[in-house]
Each structure stands twice: as structure tokens, then as C-alpha cells.
Amino acid sequence: MAGHKQTRVVVTGVGVVSPIGIGNDRFWQSLLQNQSGIDYLQSIPTDGLPSAFGAEVRDFNPVDFLRDKKYVKVMCRDIQLGVASSSLAVRDAGISDGLLDPDRFGVVFGAGRMTCHPQELAAIVEVCRSSEGFDPDKWGSEAVGRIAPLWLLRQLPNMPASHVSIDHNARGPNNTITCRDASALLALAEAVRVIQAGRADAMIVGAGSSNIHPVDIAKFHSFEGLSRRADDPSRACRPFDFERDGTVVGEGAASFIVESYEHAVRRGAEIYAEVLGTGAGCDGRGVANESAGVGLIRAMESAIGAAGITAGDVGHINAQGKSTQPDDIVESRAYHRVFGDLAMRIPVTALKSYIGHFDAGAGAVELAGTLLSLKNGYVPATLNYEFPDPRCRLNVARGEAQRLHNRTAITVNRTAMGQSAAAVLRAL
Q1: I need a labelling partner for 294 at 20 to 30 A (CA). Which of 94, 182, 421, 427 fits?
Q2: φ and ψ of 387, to 5 deg
Q3: Are 378 and 315 in contact (CB under 8 A)?
Q4: Which residues touch 128 (CB under 8 Å, ≥6 apart)?
Q5: What is the pLDDT of residues 140-195, one digit of tens each?
Q6: What is the mean pLDDT of residues 314-327?
Q7: Residue 163 and residue 156: Cα distance in Å, rounded?
Q8: Rounded Cα–Cα distance for residues 206 and 82 (Å)
């Protein structure tokens, strides 16, 4: 519509549950102090696993963050982390009961692969065991009754959004994004569209995941590639470093309160940043597209175009930085296509060097890192970046946190299949 002024959308609350701290202050201080959350796994036995390293959330009790403790029994770890982060974000945004119109307060949440772990079906498999192996005839008549009636609710990807909505009486638009690494940024993009369409005043956005389980670790090693290092856990994840040899599993979540600028100002909220633009893309068919990171290129170009800025206006990049040889090279190529020679000057940070890799939840925690960077005026260093890879040629921040001279950032995520998302944010 000619002359229509687009609604401005801002972030007013951040909540983090991460391997380097629960809560914004602990999380941010760990980033400033180069404190890695990657260590030897403590919650599970590591015999026979391809890696004994992981980034675990320690000292976490989900009941500390829930209005109704009874829901814990139908929450897997992923859901617990996500719901806890939403409570922290709501509190950080200063949203008390009854402050918002519940019908104009919505939720869009990202979810990863909340897999059913083998021990949860062990009882029914045992019932079907026979001298000849597995007797399927017993499945319906005897075995199914051994499953807890609400068992499936622990794994359904829409349950984080459901629990968050119930916990905070957010009765407005509600959706779930299941696009692994890109989920959190895609959720942010949808929340922006919902608010700009006038369907809600505020949205809870976020994602949470936990990959600290033998099944998930085996999957990651098969499809993503885990580091083979066995000496020092904190040095295992090395985004863009020449000696990187794989990623490290982790867990965590982050949530955000996203609302229209007018609504935030009217209620006197503190604003972290404005969401200037979002974008998405996918590599599509062909080795050439995949190796060039075409999906990531499209996502960044779309976000920058929607923001109404140029590539030269970007102050820093919060990268996917998976720490595998091929993925980091593909990502670097995309930066060079979008930013040209500026790709060698714009500071790049890769927070998986602190928190490990846990698809949807990692993207959310990285977005939290971007927002706190913009608020505090520093970009965290990338850990373990010691030997620059000449195939990447990026200005990777290292050593210690660098003061920002430009408080506009782009944050990106890309899945192993090339699905990509990007968001441009600016501190106000």
C-alpha cells in the first residue's frame, strides 16, 4: 500500500539457559572472560562413544522456572530448557501477569530433533521378545499397554510452544518451526511478520535442544562430524581454525520477547535492539550450489535488503561456525560473495566454540549472544582460533572481546542440508 509505514519490531527481553551460564549476566560474563562450556561429559557414560566431550548445562533444575511443577513429567530435556529460557525472557522484559492482552500475546518456538531414546521403549520390546527374535503379534495385544499414556508428549516438537503458551497465558498466534539450526531465526522472522501484520502486540520467540545422549552423539558423528580430539575439551571446537576437525555436542536454549516498537515504548520497556530485516534461503540442487552456500547467500542478501542497509553498514557477524572443515569453508565463501573484500575486515564471532552444537537451541543461544553484544558494545572472541585457515580469509575475533564501533549486526545459521536464515539487528 502506497505510503504505508511498516511497523518497527524490537527485542525487549532475553533469557538464556546455556552451558556457560543460566541467565543473561552469567552467560555474558563467560563470553567476556573466554570461559568455555565444553568439558568431559558427566551426565552419561562415554565408553564406546565417538567423543567424550560435550557442553552440558550444569546446576539446572526445571521446577525452578515452571508455574506448575507437574508438567515436568511430560517434558523431555529439550522442552525443559526451552520453557525455562522463556520464563527468564518474560521476567527480563518486565512482563507481569495481566500486563499484556493475552489474545495479542503469542508464541513461535523452534525445535530440533527431540528423538525417542531406546530405553523409553525397552519395556515393550522386551514383551515382544521371543525365541525367534521379535514377535510383532504381541505389539498391539500386550506390549502397547506398557507405554505411559502421555509418553509421546515428551517428544512432540510442538510441545515447547504449547508449554510456553500455557505458562505465560499467551493466547495469541502460536506456531512451531522445525528446521534444526535455522529454527530460531526463522521463528524470529515469523514473529516479526505476525506483529507487522497487526495480529499481535508481542511474541515469545525461542528454541531449545539437548543432544547430550549416546543416540544423539552417534547421530551427530554420522551426519555432522564430531571432533576426534581427546586431550583438552575446551580446545576441541575450533571454528574457522586450520586445525579444526569437527564439532562438539551441547545443549541449551534461549528465548526473546519481540514486540512492536510503539507497544514497547508505551509500556516503558528496555529495548535491546531493533530487528531491521530477516531472510531465508536453501542451497537447492547441485554440488556447485551447496559448495558456494547459495542458501546462506540468499538469506543474508534478503535480510540486508529488508533492513534497507548496505553490506558496509554491518558492524559484526555472528557466524554458524560449526567447526567442521567443509561447513566453515562453505560459510566463508558465502560471506565473501555477500560482503566482498569487507569479509576480511568485518569482525566475525563463532559462539559454538563456547557452547558446542545443538541445532535449534544453539541458534537461539547465538542470537542471544548477538543481542547482548549490541547492548554491551562488545563482540566476544572466538575461542581456539589460533591458525587462520587461508581458505576462509575472515576477520575472526580472537584473543579477547573487541569493542564495537558499529552496533549493527547480522546473525546467521545454516543446516547441514543448506537451509539458511539470517537476521539484521541494530541497537537503539
Answers
A1: 427
A2: -125, 95
A3: no
A4: 134, 135, 136, 138, 139, 142, 143
A5: 877 777 777 777 788 899 999 999 999 999 999 999 999 999 999 999 999 999 99
A6: 97
A7: 12
A8: 7
Cα atoms in the Cβ-side hemisphere of radius 13 Å centred on 292: 14
Q: What are the chain's domains?
A: 9-115+155-426 (3.40.47.10), 121-148 (no CATH)
Secondary structure letter of residue 249 according to DSSP = B
> Do 185 and 363 meet the contact criterion of CB atoms below 8 Å apart?
yes
Query: Of 48, 25, 52, whose CA–CA distance to 38 is shortest?
Result: 52
In the chain the first and final C-alpha atoms are separated, in Å, by: 27
Residue with cell 524470529: 188
Q: What is the pTM of this model?
A: 0.94
| DSSP characters over 156-178 | -TTHHHHHHHHHHT--S-EEEE-
For the chain, give the percent of residues with pLDDT over 90. 81
Residue 280 · residue 189 · CB < 8 Å: yes
Phi/psi class of residue 197: alpha, beta or left (left: φ > 0; alpha: ψ in -120 to 50)? alpha
Q: How far is CA 217 from CA 17, 162, 165, 183, 297, in A?
A: 20, 27, 30, 20, 30
C-alpha closest to that of 89 among 27, 172, 7, 181: 27
> How confident is the model over 219-226, as a mean pLDDT?
87
Helix-then-strand count for the chain, H and E: 13, 18
The residues, any chain, with a CB within 8 Å of residue 367's CB and separated by 6 or more, are 184, 185, 188, 254, 256, 318, 411, 423
Residue 324: closest CA among 362, 352, 285, 295? 352
Q: Residue 135: its pLDDT value, please?
A: 84
Contact 104, 266 (CB under 8 A): no
Kindly tell me if the per-residue pLDDT of 370 is higher than 50: yes
DSSP class of residue 413 equals E
Residue located via cell numbers 495481566: 98
Q: Which residue has the cell 528423538?
A: 115
What residues have CB less than 8 Å from 232, skipping those under 6 apart?
A: none
pLDDT, tens digit (0-9, with 9 covering 90-100), for 7-55 = 999 999 999 999 999 999 999 999 999 999 999 999 999 999 999 999 9
